[in-house]
Amino acid sequence: MTDLDDLALAFAGLASAAGLVVMDVYATDFAVRSKADASPVSEADEAAEALLIPGVERLLPGVPILAEEAVSRDGLVDVGTEFVLIDPLDGTKEFVSRNGDFTVNIALIRQGRPVAGCVYAPAKERIFLGGTRATSGSLIPGADVGDLSTITTRAYPSEGLTAVTSRSHLDDDTKAFVERIGAASTTDAGSSLKFCLVAAGEADVYPRFAPTMEWDTAAGHAVLTAAGGSVLTPDGSAFAYGKVDAGFRNGSFIAWGRDPRVW
After folding, report:
1. CA-CA distance, 152 to 229, in Å (whole number)?
2. Left, alpha or beta for 125 (phi > 0: left; psi -120 to 50: alpha)?
């Protein structure tokens, strides 16, 4: 499969199926344990990933896959200039607290850039796709993907920017950034939904200074880029993927709806 919009749509079908698995667990008195890095993991993460990996392998035979739970269990795999990042349940803390702000994330990386991605929030029944264009729509977990609408970032409001921040990782650096840009308002959200709020024109900027991994951000980055936004390091450099020497850990970044020089 070579068309990026078709690929994002195929990712969406997989995410819908994974979302059904996630919501089946969500409806139970599920157990949570801690991984070696102290992050939480549930049976929903593992069951969703067990569905997603073979699905992606069928779509993109021979393309390396980095999936969060597989990496935690088996270690990193070799990747080249093209690979797939999977987070089967981004926002496990939100999943555990049952606030609905968790997502299924799938993204294709080429030459350090996310070029196709899907972010699905099954509890909110909302899906976001990014390829050559960005789209969004309603989707019941397990259902076929139906009508999608094109989304774009909005022009920066004259009254000031709306900043979206992490519900679980609001640190002093983020607070200082929000103050420095003179944000007119702030909102919080969990998981990669923060990228999607900017992509859909519901917010203008998402700063992140707390640690993340590449599978946390790639799908949302793909959606935002397709919607007209960008993800940059704090010094304005491109935010790249495939950071093998860093163990695929991200540094700080700022997700912008429009050119940051015009706000």
Report:
1. 8
2. left
Q: Are 117 and 230 in contact (CB under 8 A)?
A: no
User: Residue 167 in contact with residue 150, Cβ under 8 Å?
Assistant: no
Q: What is the pLDDT of residue 1?
A: 56
pLDDT in tens, 130-180: 999 999 999 999 999 999 999 999 999 999 999 999 877 778 999 999 999
* C-alpha span between 151 and 201 (Å, rounded): 8
Token pair 């860093």 is found at 246
Round to the nearest angstrom and report the end-to-end CA distance of the chain: 39
pTM for this prediction: 0.94
Q: How far apart are CA 103 and CA 183, in angstroms?
A: 26
| pLDDT of amino acid 106 | 98
CA–CA separation, 92 and 32 (whole Å): 9
How deeply is 31 buried, as exposed, middle or buried, from its count of CB atoms within 10 A (0-12, 13-18, 19+)? exposed
What is the location of CATH 3.30.540.10 in the chain? 4-150
Instruction: Tell me the CATH number for domain 162-262.
Output: 3.40.190.80
Task: Determine how β-strand 65-67 pairs with β-strand 82-90.
Answer: parallel
Class of domain 4-150 (CATH, top level): alpha beta
